[in-house]
Specification:
The chain is of the alpha+beta class. It is built from 11 helices and 11 strands.
């Protein structure tokens, strides 16, 4: 039965992306798909307009997964909702989350941040959630507190960034991490640009994730080994990078991110994507040839993509299910790990009433 307000879980179910669909696509194991469904029913659509799912590839596909919610501050949509006689967005966080000091800090951060945020939950280690039980700690991802056209010094960037850590974690940034973040922002120079930071409250490690894109887009990452070294990465990927360059995989590199902690580059991530207008098939075929995923996994990703319209509780919605990117994650001393990212986005037709 649909409750009011409509939850993301309601919309996921009505768009054909239900728990069964997530498990049936072969990308998420049934136990994790059930957790995904449970968690998505805790967030009202007026607060978040879509979900993103990260799942493990390789020999044990779908045995680990993360679920992310995009929290919207969409004034145009909010005005349309009010004009149609509907409720404006719910207060953040949802009622069941309003327990504990941690969520009060997340709520304070979301209230004062005018941009869209992402909340990410580790489904693999997520306990069973009973009714009214507070949600676990999330990872919080947010755009940098400066515009791309602002030419700020390292000190000015840190003055804006470090308070975000203090609000979310409730403590000052450790000196060694502040120093390493300073080195990172100093190294990011045109044509590189930071597009997102993340504070993983769900982890025991004091890291900040720093995500960088190239102004020129995909295929412009020249001298990549030198770039990641300058940003703080200490591992050795030279041989693999040469191989990926030869296969054309690097041409589909969209962004890289580095987890900055006491030792600068704690973990490196490389994200390969096709963009919204291009087919995912060439990228997936390349990854199959490299042994990253099985052909059946690639086909499951292709089959997931769909668009459509539906009615939920007398209200009309459009949905878009799509594959977004594949990420390589590696630590200086560990083996490579690959994950696929896909999800669903929703849009309401506010002039419709059944």
């Amino acid at each position: 039965m649909i409750t009011n307000p409509i939850s993301l879980g309601d919309l996921v179910t009505h768009s054909g992306g239900s728990e069964i669909a997530f498990a049936g696509c072969g990308l998420v194991q049934p136990e994790l798909a059930a957790k995904l469904s449970n968690l998505s029913h805790r967030f009202p659509f007026t607060l978040a307009s879509g979900i993103g799912v990260e799942c493990q590839l390789g020999k044990n596909p779908g045995t680990s997964a993360d679920l992310a919610f995009r929290l919207d501050h969409n004034e145009r949509r909010d005005r349309a909702l009010v004009a149609s006689g509907m409720n404006p967005p719910s207060a953040f966080p949802p009622t069941e989350c309003q327990q504990g000091v941690l969520w009060s800090r997340v709520a304070e951060f979301a209230t004062h941040n005018p941009n869209a945020l992402w909340l990410e939950f580790d489904l693999t280690n997520l306990p069973a959630l009973g009714h009214g039980q507070a949600l676990p700690a999330p990872g919080v991802f947010f755009p940098p507190p400066w515009r791309r056209d602002e030419d700020l010094s390292e000190l000015e960037q840190l003055k804006r960034l470090l308070p975000y850590w203090r609000v979310l974690r409730g403590v000052q940034v450790p000196v060694e991490i502040a120093r390493n973040l300073g080195r990172f922002v100093r190294a990011v120079r045109n044509p590189l640009v930071v597009f997102q930071f993340g504070v993983m409250l769900d982890r025991n490690k004091d890291w900040m994730r720093c995500c960088v894109v190239h102004r020129g887009g995909k295929g412009k990452w020249e001298h990549l080994p030198n770039v990641i070294k300058s940003l703080g990465w200490t591992g050795d990927l030279q041989e693999r990078l040469v191989h990926w360059q030869a296969t054309g995989l690097i041409n589909q590199l969209w962004c890289l991110h580095l987890d900055i902690g006491p030792c600068r580059g704690e973990r490196l991530g490389l994200e390969f994507t096709v963009g919204r207008k291009n087919s995912a098939k060439p990228l997936l075929e390349n990854l199959v040839a490299l042994g990253v995923m099985a052909a059946s996994q690639a086909q499951s990703i292709l089959d997931w993509s769909a668009t459509g319209d539906f009615v939920c509780a007398g209200r009309a919605f459009s949905f878009r299910r799509r594959f977004n990117h594949v990420k390589l994650s590696v630590t200086p001393s560990a083996s490579l790990g690959w994950k696929a990212y896909f999800g669903i986005e929703f849009e309401e037709h506010t002039g419709f009433h059944s």
